[in-house]
Amino acid sequence: MLSLLYQEGPSTEGIFRRSGSAKTCKELKEKLDLGAEVDLACESIFVMASLFKDFLRNIPGSILSSQLCDKWVSVMDQGNNEEKIKSIQRLIEQLPRANVVLLRYIFGVLHGIEMRSEENQMNAFNLAICIAPSLLWPPVSSTPDIESEFTKKISSLVQFLIENCCRIFGEEITSLFGEI
């Protein structure tokens, strides 16, 4: 799925912004959950993007770990970019290995899409608005005002992660998918 998003996402206007067919997403998710053979290449890229965001939202405690929520939210309040990057790297070190591997691939995809933002209209800000709520959420529910403020902070963090992913995850993030 990530490989398809990496291949087609950069040339797809509004990737992650436009939703795939709800019916198709539901049917495909059911097939995947049952372990059925599915040819993802035959599906709409918008269905893939919707399914992927759904997958991320269903990771228990979120991929960035709701237990570290306060620390993630406070990263953007730190000093200069170098300090923010160091703080992010320290937080990433606290995540389970599987989460870190998946994050590297996610940001490899997002970086590839962002590099062609003139074509797809999805710069780091737009991508962050669309994907941030799927990457981290507070451990407890709160008022709509607090949730709105939280979403803004996490979107800002994700935008920073996209814009600085090569410095955070290493330059090899640009070649994780090889020559597709």
TrEMBL record:
Signal peptide residue numbers: none
Q: Which Gene Ontology MF annotations are present?
A: GTPase activator activity
PROSITE patterns assigned: RHOGAP
Please report a single Pfam family linked to this protein. RhoGAP
The residue ranges of the Rho-GAP domain are 1-169
Q: A single GO BP annotation from the record?
A: signal transduction
Q: Does the keyword GTP-binding apply?
A: no
Query: Mind telling me which InterPro entries this protein's record contains?
Result: ARHGAP20-like_RhoGAP, Rho_GTPase_activation_prot, RhoGAP_dom
Ordered alphabetically, the record's keywords are: GTPase activation, Phosphoprotein
User: Key word Phosphoprotein present in the record?
Assistant: yes
Record-given protein name? RHG20 protein
> Which species is listed as the source?
Heliornis fulica
Q: Which lineage?
A: Eukaryota, Metazoa, Chordata, Craniata, Vertebrata
